[in-house]
Amino acid sequence: RQGINAEYGGVVAGGPYYCAQGLLSNALFACMTSPASIVNSILMTAAKNFERDRLIDPLSNLAGSKVWLYSGSKDTTVVPGVMRKLEEFYAGLVPASNIASVFNIASEHAIVTNNYGNACAYKGSPYINNCNYDSVQQMFTHLYGSLNPATTPIAANLVVISQSKYTPNGATPSSLSLSNDGYAYIPTGCKSGGCKVHVAFHGCLQSVSQVGRAFIEHAGYNRWAESNNIVILYPQTVASSLLGNPNACWDWWGYGSKNYANKNGPQMVTVMNIVNSIESGAFFDSI
């Protein structure tokens, strides 16, 4: 589960960039439960090669970025050691003072809140746990600075997005393991554009097709977004047995494209097309 912004990033229970290296076996083992198998020097070399080939932006762009990392100390799906590897990877790109790591909450594999979800140490759907800890507040404070107090989200500000408008080369969303519909929370103060855009990627087994709008409505983003004028984009996947993605994961091992980890990855192209539409203002003409 990850949240990305053009300048900042937050990661909940994830491995280093290109961890799977295009292999499902790596995704299932090294990147989830066997961190000793992760060699960051190999992953950094891959990133530099992508940079050289202009398949990703210059890594130097990250020099001023802020990063927030969360790993539950009881996570048995993506063990904390994997997140330590991610922390180490970022340390080679981002000043130490810009990295905030939270690894001391006794949660299982979930995004954690202070007001909604299963018991903190529970593992299961919808993978939102109440640990008396507002992870979104902590993430946003680190990434964006002082915040206005959270407020009640406005239901009408959650809009449905036709993801088919944004796929590359006219691809059908299902062919990319994407849902026809994505969602965005547009705060009242952002109806005409001009606000930050934060992309909130759901986790495996956490799409709307699997847990309804639990992640969208209860992970905790919207209450902070409304009072701080941050647009939250919730792109959506769907399960695809044809592509070998039964859990509706985002493509982080190459099930849909060998380009999954670079600018040409069709899922990432789709998401960036939506982001660009929001930032240009064209998006608001269609809602």
Structure description:
The structure is a single chain. This protein is α/β, with parallel strands linked by helices. The protein contains eight helices and eleven strands. An eight-stranded mixed β-sheet has the order 4-3-2-1-10-11-9-8, sandwiched between helices. Strands 5-7-6 form a three-stranded parallel β-sheet. A hairpin with a 3-residue loop joins strand 1 (about 1-5) and strand 2 (about 10). The longest helix is centred in the C-terminal third of the chain and has 15 residues, at about 265-280.
Give a brief description.
By secondary structure, the protein is an alpha/beta fold. 25% of the residues lie in helices and 16% in strands.
Oligomer: single chain
> How large a portion of the residues is in β-strands, by DSSP E?
15-25%
**Estimated helix fraction:** 25-40%
Strand order of the largest sheet: 4-3-2-1-10-11-9-8
**What's the number of extended β-strand segments?**
11
Shape field: globular
Give the end-to-end Cα distance, rounded to a whole number of Å. 27 Å
* SSE run: EEHHEHEEEEHEEEHHHEH
Helical segment tally? 8
Largest sheet: 8 strands, mixed
